[in-house]
């Protein structure tokens, strides 16, 4: 998909793709080398999340604009990305022309949010604070990464390797998540994760 998007954008007179990457480390190295105006970010980057790249951009390259291009249309993902510094959020089911429109909008100082996602964000806002009280909405970004790997059937040991952290740290995250989800043990948390997998599994759409 990265190749296809690159061909689309390079075919325009007002845009040029200066690099691409399939994981966080390669992305940061490429951004440092090319100093792009805008970065198109998927939410799945190997073992990590595109949210981490957004945080890196805000900390290291605040002048670089970021636009999310994803399969997810839920308002919680969109809100987290926008809070993390994204200037736009484009759902992959939109017509391709919407991506070009979004890029132009962001480059000219505006924000672009896919209409379907914008509508859901509005619904959440109108619902008030109670809408943010669901267990999934209370997970931190790191807990979401653990949750995503749990959905894939990873054991705490595998999660620790994937996230480059200690197993004890993973168990600490699992305990916090267990309390927020209102379940009794890790087994019940795993079942809870699998039940929500349709809404929470990330697809690496740009790979």
Could you walk me through the main structural features you see in this protein, from its secondary elements to its overall organization?
- The protein folds into two domains: 2-127, Response regulator (Rossmann fold, 3-Layer(aba) Sandwich); 135-200, Arc Repressor Mutant, subunit A (Orthogonal Bundle), CATH 1.10.10.10.
- The protein contains twelve helices and six strands.
- It is of the alpha/beta class and 207 residues long.
- The protein has helices at 2-10, 24-34, 50-60, 75-83, 96-107, 115-127, 135-138, 141-151, 156-162, 167-181, 186-195, 197-200, and strands at 38-41, 44-45, 48-49, 65-70, 88-91, 112-113.
Q: What structural class do the secondary elements suggest?
A: alpha/beta
What is the helix tally? 12
What's the pLDDT, averaged over the residues? 81
Biggest sheet strand line-up: 1-4-5-6
Shape verdict? globular
**For the record, what CATH class of the largest domain applies?**
Alpha Beta
Radius of gyration: 18 Å
N→C terminal distance = 6 Å
CATH superfamily of the largest domain: Response regulator
CATH topology tier name of the largest domain: Rossmann fold
Which percent band covers the strand fraction?
A: 5-15%
